[in-house]
Amino acid sequence: MVSGHTHICRTFEHEGRFFVNPGSATGAFTPLQSEVIPSFALLDVQASTLVTYLYRLVEDQVKVERVQFTKATSG
Predict the structure, then answer these.
(1) Cα–Cα nearest to 10, from 26, 21, 1
(2) pLDDT value for 55
(3) Hey, which end of the chain has fewer CB within 10 Å, N or C?
(4) Contact, 48 vs 73, CB < 8 A?
(5) What is the mean pLDDT of residues 14-27?
(6) Distance (Å, rounded) from C-alpha 19 to C-alpha 11?
(7) What global pTM score does this model have?
């Protein structure tokens, strides 16, 4: 599931599902956090595997984090 409301870039797995919050591409203000880091996410979906690339602008440097999630097969 992709959701954005908190402006906080993060991914997590919960009960076999993968959640992505791309954050805020502009680093827009949010009352939930005093300092918002500009960020966005790119998703690469291949069958049951999802690779997420999280891009963050930290101190004028673009940092990229790669997170992979593979959906469990039933059976």
Answers:
(1) 21
(2) 96
(3) C
(4) yes
(5) 89
(6) 5
(7) 0.82
Strand ranges inside the chain, DSSP E? 10-14, 17-21, 39-46, 49-58, 61-70
Q: In this model, does residue 28 exceed pLDDT 90?
A: no
Pairwise CA distance, residues 2 & 42, whole Å: 11
Q: Provide the phi-psi class of 6: left if phi over 0, else alpha when psi is between -120 and 50, else beta.
A: alpha
Q: Taking 70 as the threshold, does the pLDDT of residue 72 lie above it? A: yes
Q: In Å, how far are 7, 9, 22, 38, 55 from 18, measured between CA atoms?
A: 18, 14, 13, 22, 18
- Sign of the Cα torsion 13, 33, 3, 60 reads negative
User: Quick one: tokens of 40?
Assistant: 């966005």
User: Which pLDDT value is given to residue 75?
Assistant: 60
- Report how far residue 68's alpha carbon sits from residue 11's, in angstroms, rounded to the nearest whole number: 10
- Give the type of residue at 31: P
